[in-house]
Write a structure and sequence with these properties.
The structure is a homodimer. Chain A is mostly helical. The first copy, chain A, has one domain: Arc Repressor Mutant, subunit A (Orthogonal Bundle), CATH 1.10.10.10. Helix content of chain A is about 60%, strand content about 10%. In chain A, strands 1-2 form a two-stranded antiparallel sheet. In chain A, strand 1 and strand 2 form a beta hairpin. Chain A is globular. The model of chain A has no long low-confidence stretch (mean pLDDT about 90). Chains A and B meet through helix 1, helix 2, helix 3 and helix 7 of A and helix 1, helix 2, helix 3 and helix 7 of B.
């Protein structure tokens, strides 16, 4: 049992994660921040999945409220808002890596290069560290 | 880059996983099969999150169509349908483990016992194997 039976209603960790992460769109924003170096509202809007502006605005607010992302002003252009992952957000890296590895196994046309999959599988800690460093301003 | 830029529209592995896994309810069914030993429609319905019957029926169909779960007849009661995870479904174990570990870190009231969290973190392969064996009929 992963959850204690009595506590499960509110305390199941799978439910907690799913409630915090929300729907598909929230995790795609996390992906864009984590792997694609995106930082701005406009960049998220351009992603191929075609997120709607109202959905994007709502999910950014939710992710910020949950402490997964944070907003700062661009020091070079004070009118521009930059989003970044918090520690809590970066700690989702292993979860997204497992998603990528699972998809690579079951989607013959997956876009992830074989060399990257090998590193995710065999050099986890170093990969996670690189993701984190790549995201620094 | 986890996804090759040109291929990303349809081939991004994060999108693939999110599309296949669907919403929260699908993953709660996978959790019930994986960690709680549930096998029947009635057992899924009893889970604390209170899934609605129409949602449950729909998500079971979707998960079966995607090859994540499969149906068999209960050999002891031919009118009863038993659900189980396929190999593809069991291969979601690391993803759910990362969800549990993340939640344990950020939800002070998480229901997962500390000893189990330690095993998930430090003895991954054995834990995955046990999950798999626990699910055998």
């Amino acid at each position: 049992m992963v959850c204690d039976e009595k506590k499960r209603r509110s305390k199941c960790p799978v439910t907690f994660a799913l409630d915090q992460l929300g729907d598909k769109w929230s995790l795609l924003i996390v992906r864009d921040l984590m792997f694609h170096g995106k930082r701005t509202y406009g960049e998220f809007l351009e992603s191929d999945e075609g997120i709607a502006t109202n959905v994007l605005a709502d999910r950014l607010k939710r992710l910020e409220a949950e402490g997964i992302i944070e907003k700062t002003r661009d020091p070079e252009n004070r009118r521009r808002v930059l989003y970044s992952l918090t520690d809590k957000g970066f700690d989702l890296t292993p979860l997204l890596m497992e998603m990528v590895l699972w998809s690579a196994k079951y989607d013959a046309d997956t876009a992830t290069p074989k060399a990257m999959l090998d590193r995710m599988e065999n050099d986890r800690a170093a990969f996670i560290q690189e993701v984190r460093e790549g995201m620094k301003i």
